[in-house]
Design brief:
Elements lengths: L13 H36 L15 H8 L1 H32 L6 H13 L2 H11 L6 H8 L16 H26 L3 H9 L4 H29 L3 H6 L11 H11 L3 H30 L4
Helix pairs in contact: 1-12, 2-12, 3-7, 3-9, 4-7, 7-9, 9-12, 11-12
């Protein structure tokens, strides 16, 4: 009977094993750090959200009762409405102002570098400092904004920007636009500078106007970057906390109370940590779903699919 010869598997030398393991060894500290800083608190929040947990009292497992309670709570529904208005108004304003300024700064004119530096300052200011500055500027007694309106006879009495439920949210939306338009401006300006000048020269030879070049060349080429910036600004705006909390703490009459502020107030002001954690988990899920749907649509648009 013929003997069947089987080839033995090749032996892998230690240098090859070391080369293959080196990337994992280099990434391991970052993964451990992410696990400690991100994954552990996230898992702990999900666990707390399943308990009726109140500061000073023993916890009790309730399953998804906290989530059901949140959905039925009118405070949550009000926060959803406020967050929606806040996000749409802020992101739309930041995108419009940022794109317009980027188009202007892309053109050659004396002192362009100075204007670029000055227009970046709001984004460089820490949120804490910006919030306190605008609280002072919106003051009805000492604020410069109310004083200018009185001097221009636009208002007949000092304006309570942060105390009036009708104008508190629009006022803070304007502050957020001022604070973050520079990020949009910088990214779009970088995208504009990446467009080859030969395209504009060819369009000019063909007799295209500035407006036609804008619609036929500029906007289509920077559209992918616009969509990415739009997604980033939407995520950051939905999760805004410190700017509004410092200025109004969600007031007056909950007219500026976003979902992150509601979660904070439930967890640390009323002591309902289980309810606050559940709201935080809901906000995380909504953000993930929004990003997934948006990126899927973005990928299909790049591929030219309907």
């Amino acid at each position: 009977m013929a003997r069947i010869l089987t080839a033995s598997p090749p032996r892998v030398s230690w240098p090859v094993i070391r080369t293959r393991l080196l990337p994992y060894v280099l990434v391991a500290p970052a993964l451990v750090l992410i696990g400690v800083v991100l994954l552990y608190p996230l898992g702990l929040s999900i666990r707390i959200s399943l308990y009726a947990k109140q500061l000073g009292f023993p916890e009790r497992f309730v399953g998804f009762a906290n989530y059901v309670r949140i959905v039925e709570d009118p405070v949550f529904l009000n926060s959803v409405k406020v967050t929606t208005i806040w996000t749409i108004g802020s992101v739309a304003g930041q995108m419009i102002v940022g794109i317009v300024l980027a188009l202007l700064l892309h053109r050659e004119f004396p002192g362009r570098s100075v204007f670029r530096t000055l227009l970046m300052l709001p984004w460089a200011i820490p949120n804490f400092i910006a919030a306190l500055t605008w609280v002072w500027m919106f003051s009805d007694r000492f604020g410069i904004v109310s004083h200018l309106l009185l001097q221009a006879h636009i208002a007949s009495e000092p304006v309570l920007f942060l105390a009036n439920p009708n104008i508190a949210l629009p006022s803070i939306i304007l502050v957020n636009i001022w604070k973050n338009y520079a990020f949009v401006m910088i990214v779009i300006l970088a995208a504009l500078q990446a467009i080859p000048t030969e395209l504009y020269e060819a369009a000019e030879v063909d007799g295209a106007s500035w407006w036609q070049s804008l619609w036929r060349i500029t906007l289509p080429l920077i559209l992918p970057m616009i969509l990415i910036v739009l997604l980033l600004r939407a995520i950051w705006t939905i999760n805004t906390f410190e700017l509004i909390f410092i200025m109004t703490e969600g007031g007056p009459a909950r007219q500026t109370e976003l979902l992150p502020i509601t979660a904070f107030l439930w967890a640390f002001r009323t002591g309902l940590t289980g309810l606050g954690s559940a709201l935080g988990v809901i906000l995380m899920i909504v953000t993930i779903v929004f990003c997934s749907v948006y990126l899927r649509a973005y990928g299909r648009s790049l591929r030219g699919e309907v």
